[in-house]
């Protein structure tokens, strides 16, 4: 009697999915161990946004007209996005090291789900950035941030931030796979860090000159910031939430397709 050995490519779909989840869990554990062994990366990710909070709240905040309420509450949504934008550079950096060090090729030669390699880095990014976001919110509370949001509103804010992190992480995968140097792998995050400065994150867009105002009002950060700010203040979100979700889903889908296409071509 002959038996047939099921490889990952020939196994039934349900078995492949189960293996993919298991393999992703194993590689996620590996990535998280690397993060816990270099906690300075998480701390560094949170330090810059906290420095921005201190600068704008206690140095510049008194000169900025933002409407009613405390400036730290007005400022926090944009600072949270900057936290994520600075954190995902480490995702590109860690993936770059795995690619250049031959770890990715070695994993691809093993009988594991190919998707597990990328998803482990993506999930590590979600966990690490969530920790950084909690640290930044804690710092904002010490500075006087208070919220009128209920549990559902906080859940919605968390969901937006996680989706934002997911979108930017898949963007980070692309330079992580393509970069030729360490500096190039992380440099792509710099424009993302400064994008909130040309939005409603720090000042109302109505105060900006015409061309700048037009860009600020129609770029994704403004709708995301306005949606989070309304949720935290217990105010109606309006169309901002819908616009923000459309932007985030579109960015995630496009970045995912591009990243996975590049990944598949690298192993052909």
Describe this structure in words.
This protein has helices at residues 13-37, 40-60, 71-100, 103-108, 115-142, 151-178, 182-187, 189-194, 210-218, 220-232, 240-266. It is mostly helical and 268 residues long. The chain has one domain (13-266).
Compact description:
Helix 2 packs parallel to helix 5 (115-142) and helix 10 packs across helix 11 (240-266). The protein has helices at 13-37, 40-60, 71-100, 103-108, 115-142, 151-178, 182-187, 189-194, 210-218, 220-232, 240-266.
Which structural class best describes the helix and strand composition? mainly alpha
Helix content: over 70%
Count helical runs. 11
Into how many domains do the coordinates divide? 1
Dominant shape = elongated
Oligomeric description of these chains:
single chain
Runs in which pLDDT lies below 50 for 5 or more consecutive residues are 1-6
Topology pattern, helix = H, strand = E: HHHHHHHHHHH
Describe the secondary structure blueprint for this structure.
Blueprint: H1 13-37, H2 40-60, H3 71-100, H4 103-108, H5 115-142, H6 151-178, H7 182-187, H8 189-194, H9 210-218, H10 220-232, H11 240-266
Descriptive key words:
single chain; 268 residues; mainly alpha; 11 helices; 74% helix; 0% strand; disordered N terminus
């Amino acid at each position: 009697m002959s038996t047939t050995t099921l490889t990952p490519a020939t196994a039934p779909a349900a078995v492949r999915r189960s293996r993919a989840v298991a393999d992703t869990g194993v590689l996620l554990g590996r990535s998280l161990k690397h993060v816990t062994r270099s906690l300075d990366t998480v701390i560094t990710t949170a330090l810059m946004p906290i420095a921005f909070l201190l600068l704008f709240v206690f140095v510049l905040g008194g000169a900025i007209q933002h409407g009613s309420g405390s400036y730290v509450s007005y400022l926090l949504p944009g600072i949270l996005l900057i936290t994520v934008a600075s954190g995902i550079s480490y995702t590109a950096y860690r993936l770059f090291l795995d690619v250049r060090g031959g770890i990715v090729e070695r994993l691809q030669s093993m009988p594991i789900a190919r998707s597990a390699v990328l998803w482990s880095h993506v999930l590590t990014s979600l966990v690490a950035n969530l920790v950084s976001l909690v640290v930044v919110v804690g710092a904002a509370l010490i500075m006087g941030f208070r919220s009128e949001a209920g549990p559902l509103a906080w859940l919605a804010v968390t969901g937006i931030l996680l989706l934002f992190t997911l979108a930017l992480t898949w963007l980070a995968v692309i330079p992580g796979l393509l970069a030729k140097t360490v500096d190039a792998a992380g440099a792509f995050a710099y424009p993302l860090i400064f994008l909130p400065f040309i939005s409603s994150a720090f000042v109302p867009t109505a105060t900006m000159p015409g061309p700048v105002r037009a860009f600020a009002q129609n770029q994704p950060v403004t709708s995301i910031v306005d949606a989070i700010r309304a949720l935290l203040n217990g105010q109606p979100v309006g169309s901002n939430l819908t616009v923000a979700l459309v932007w985030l889903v579109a960015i995630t889908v496009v970045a995912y397709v591009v990243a996975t296409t590049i990944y598949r071509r690298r192993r052909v």
